[in-house]
């Protein structure tokens, strides 16, 4: 419910229903009433009903329940307000018996006892007080739900931004190490590597700030990254990138796939032409299937994964809750990451 309009709408609906109910009663009553009768019954008593409604709504509930948690004190004040207001209405009736304690039925004047009048007004006042409680707690519940949703959304967004901020420096650190190695070797590929890194950083900084990006752009980013990595291998790097399905028509959270490819270069063997790194992307209208298979580098004793995969799995939990499946197989010779996302 909208923060500004919700309470106004709910209160307006409630009072419109009350006024409509009174109009219906007045229209279908057969016996005539004087103007003084209407002023007392609907005017003065109406002001009292509205007053106790908002005394409970604005003062009693916030002060005794919301802030102080004094439930017994609130109940005492609740009953006291019912009794006091009923007593005031009864005094007014006693002072105006013709209009309030007498009524005409079938041409015969009937009298209402003071006790009956008091208890009738007691229950009417109870109705307005209970109604104010229901409306107050209903609006507070919606307000609390909205606040919790906003806090959860802000928390998720902060966590995603934190994870993303970790991912970018992690990638930049590895890439700069590679370029440093090329520069140290005085390789002619250094300028090309810097250009590729510039293109990649442009995507990471400017184009990946939206909640989702076109899958085709993410694939272009992966391709640029692979080309950047190939530059540093003198003997060549062997990567098989296979694309199938509706790559151009799908959306994905940006920078979601890079860590899997990055790990293949960092921990795997990419220079074996007989056993290349295999990257497979299949996309249809419902499912994205992504897999990376690489031969393990037996000389690399570091654990597969690291910061990149830890972050990407946490991001998956946040942005694709119960909509993804990640399967990692670490065999004696190969490392396989298989990701399926319900997009």
Structural write-up:
By secondary structure, the chain is α+β, with helices and mostly antiparallel strands. The chain has 9 helices and 10 strands. Strands 4, 6, 7, 8, 9 and 10 form a 6-stranded mixed beta sheet that branches. It has a two-stranded antiparallel ribbon with strand order 1-2. Strand 1 and strand 2 form a beta hairpin. Helix 2 crosses helix 5 and helix 3 runs antiparallel to helix 5 (114-184). The longest helix has 71 residues, at 114-184. The chain is rod-shaped and about 115 Å long.
Short description:
This protein is an alpha+beta fold and 343 residues long. It has helices spanning 5-28, 35-67, 71-95, 97-100, 114-184, 190-207, 215-231, 258-267, 306-319; strands at residues 102-105, 108-111, 213-214, 239-245, 251-252, 268-269, 277-283, 287-296, 324-330, 334-342.
**Amino-to-carboxy terminus distance:** 29 Å
In N-to-C order, the SSE pattern is HHHHEEHHEHEEHEEEHEE
> What is the count of helical runs?
9
Rg from Cα: 37 Å
Into which percent range does the helicity of residues fall?
55-70%
- Structural class of the secondary structure composition? alpha+beta
Major sheet summary line: 6 strands, mixed
State which percent range the strand residues make up: 15-25%
Number of strands: 10
Principal-axis shape: rod-shaped
Low-confidence stretches: none
Q: What's the overall average pLDDT, rounded?
A: 83
